[in-house]
Amino acid sequence: MLEAPVTNDEFLAAFGTEQACISSLFEARWPGGFRCPACGSARYYEVSTRRLPLYECASCRLQTSLIVGTVMEGSRTSLTRWFHAIYLLSRTDGISALRLSELIQVTYKTAWLMAHKIRSAMSEADASVLLTGDVRIDRCYYGDPTFDDARQPLLIGASLNDEALPAFIKIKQPDPIHVYENKRFIKPEGVQAFHEAHTDCASLPEISRYRKNHPALSLVVRQLNAWLNLTFNGIGAKHLQGYLNEFTYRLNCAYRGSSAFHATVDWCASSPVVTYPQLTAFKPKLQVPWLYFGSKARWRGSHLSRWGA
User: What is the pLDDT of residues 147-162, one digit of tens each?
Assistant: First the structure.
């Protein structure tokens, strides 16, 4: 595997051709060498009459596409653009879909869909790791604190190292039934649900509504709010969880000292595709009908009072 690109020029030098991206994606899909998904045979023939190669098993003759079973499945966008998008989303500050569309020269809709598909792979990575050891869970929020309508309560959890600093972080939206009507606090049931879903701890850490949050976690929340507002001018609740997962994914890669770019390529190569209808579908009606855009809070009508309408 090539070293992770640091600058855009380094990226283009390493992944500026379709063949370089094909080779990297092949290695990410089959790090131990090709294996037929039907019979497990390692012998194959490459069929190169299409835009992307097919791999035909020498034993059972099954043809396997390079991108089937990845987040790129069904896409007609070139791999060079996909890899460029992965590179830009894996950088420290990420990128908006509008800016992404300009840099990789695709339509805004295509860039938006690509970005969300890559975030879905980052979400798969987040779900694969549970918080363990010394776990801290705090309540926090995203949005303008002066407007209840703009507050989106969140839970942040972290595995702390021996120096009481975060080693792995998760930030999650609670189920709206676990949020009080004034939207200022999350009920104890919400903390319990977070604990059961995202930690492997036998007992729930002691949490007080009135206790000050962990200083390192408070800093992370401030960085999260600044990133969402400066990069995207605010995010509505419907897609917020994907952006939370993107933010913590890059942060956790930094904690581990691993390459976010190559890790993202690996996860994109093994994560199922998310379709546009799935991303844009309405979620079930919820009890917390607010959205937040930048520094301004705006109510939406009752017909849009869904989680992220």
Answer: 656 678 999 999 999 9
